[in-house]
Please model this.
Amino acid sequence: MREVDSLRRFLFEDAPLRGHWLRLESSWRAAREHQDHPPVVTALLGEALAAVTLLAAALKFRGTLTLQVRGKGLLPLLIAQCTHERKLRGVAQPLEGAEIPDTATLEELIGDGQLVVTVDNEEGMPWQGIVPLTGGTLSACLERYFETSEQLPTRLVLSADGHRAAGFLLQKLPSPEHAGEGEEGRRHDLWEEVSVLLATLGGRELLDTEVDVLLHRLFAEHDLRLFESEVVRFGCRCGPERIAALLRSLGEDEAQDIVAEQGAITVTCEFCHRPYRYDAIDVAQLFAETPAAIPPGSMN
Ligand SMILES: [Zn+2]
Model:
């Protein structure tokens, strides 16, 4: 059976390794439904959504994990988010009017940029990690992120086209404290060996192959345990409260000015394209309801 919109965890019974496999189809199509980008931007957005879902699976938290790619190139901003409930959404914002060739590299797309990983944790402190965008691919940047921020050697393969997105993540578990030099050496050799094997996995093969077949193909010599599938969905976090907060942050005068000029304020969610419309009465109510929400200093 073809598995789609599915996240599967696996571990090696005979080695300190673990990983996740992911394939998105309808969730990916829903996430990009209102975004009409050049193929190379679509592919990067799909890879980012696959990556953020794998990161969410690999890191323990309750809340939302956000992957932000920021730069000064043709694509200055790309955001991908996944919650602990495996709801994802994402948006890419190329420069207006930019012509983006199919052959554009990550450097050409992003330019001198950064990869920012943020966790809004419901049950603890929020945290953020930043790595420079180097290495030519999103997966190389994320491997660096894991190495520097999480001290976890990690290998990632990502792939996406207009219909599907897929990802594969493999991690080396930390050594126990009592591990001797021999044990460390064996762990190191094993990691080198599986890294080489994983480097043979191509993007097309990842998109097309079922997880059990793929694991067998890559690691036939090892004993692996594959866990039950987790469903991944598209889900937007926008809602009237968030939009109201955004409008309040504009300030009453500016909101009234827009209503005077345009008859109403229309805000469209950039992730799901749901429109929110506020006419003169809505705006008056918005500012009458919660005077405390006006930021200090904005009332002179
Ligand atoms: Zn939305």
